[in-house]
Amino acid sequence: MSAEATRGHAFDGIEEFDNRLPNWWLWTFYLACIFSVFYWIHYHTIGSGALPGAEYQAEQREAAARLEAAAANSPITEASLQELAKNPAVVEEGRKIFQDPAKCALCHKPDGSGNIGPNLTDDLWVYGGKAMDIYTSIAKGRPGGMLPHEMYGVTFVQRATAYVLSIKNTNLPGKAPEPNAKKEQ
Ligand code: HEC
Questions:
Q1: What separation in Å is there between the alpha carbon of 87 and the centre of ligand 1?
Q2: Alpha carbon distance 55, 78 (integer Å)
Q3: Span from the CA of 19 to the centroid of ligand 1 (angstroms)
Q4: The pTM is what?
Q5: Whose CA is nearest to atom 39 of ligand 1?
Q6: Which mean pLDDT values do the consecutive 10-residue runs of the chain (185 residues) have?
Q7: Which residue's alpha carbon is nearest to atom 36 within ligand 1?
Q8: Pairing between β-strand 14-17 and β-strand 182-183 as defined by DSSP bridges
């Protein structure tokens, strides 16, 4: 090693050279600085770019919309409803419907534990706890005060069904079971 300039400090006999940083290193550093300015403006200042979280949410919504459109155009079956109930974006839309104070939450409470309407979180059902039974209860209504909801459209009823399937059997303490309710998984 030639006699190169050092920084003038030593620790345990180890000295530090005062070398010039290589150009390739400096340029990657400068370019990263310039890039960060554009990145910051694009994502954080004017918000013209979607951050990964938002992009993921948008993709989830798109996938849910495709799934729902396909389901709305084909016959509604036990399997198609179970499929929707597995999609978190559909269940999330159903949750919004259910917890809307003017909709299901009015009679079933926001957590589904029952008020005027029965507790939907238990395993006891008057009209059946299968996906198709729940779908029919929501779409057509039931004589004891359950309103029909089919006028809001197939997607609405599918989302509400997906949400009810997601809270079914979570067994929240709530309204006492109806005397004519039967146990069903
Ligand atoms: C105006 C009050 C009211 C609203 C609003 C309402 N329900 Fe109900 N719901 C009831 C009542 C009362 C019953 C019991 C009907 C019966 O026993 O004949 C019921 C029954 C049900 C059942 C059948 C339960 C069983 O044991 O078989 C389901 C499922 C259900 N509701 C889901 C919903 C969903 C989802 C919504 C919102 C989209 C909703 N309900 C909105 C009052 C309501």
A1: 23
A2: 31
A3: 77
A4: 0.76
A5: 104
A6: 77 91 96 97 91 89 83 86 92 96 96 96 95 97 96 93 96 90 82
A7: 104
A8: unpaired
Q: State in Å: Cα 147 to ligand 1 middle.
A: 7
- Burial track 11-20 (b if 16+ CB lie within 10 A, e otherwise): eeeeeeeeee
Q: Which two tokens stand for residue 52?
A: 């990964």
**Whole-Å CA distances, 30 to 33, 42, 115, 179:** 5, 19, 64, 75
Q: Is 145 left (phi over 0), alpha (psi -120 to 50) or beta?
A: left
**Ligand 1 midpoint to CA 148 (Å):** 9
Structure-block tokens of residue 7: 């920084």
In this predicted structure, what is the pLDDT of residue 3? 63
Taking domain 60-183, whether its CATH number is 3.30.420.340 is answered by no
| Residue 71, pLDDT score | 75
Total number of residues shown for the chain: 185
Q: Name the token pair of 121.
A: 């979180």
The residue extents of the domains of the chain are 6-45, 60-183
Name 142's bridge partners. Answer: 146
- Please indicate whether residue 135, judged by its CB atom, sits closer than 6 Å to ligand 1: no
Q: Is the distance from the beta carbon of residue 72 to the nearest atom of ligand 1 less than 6 Å?
A: no
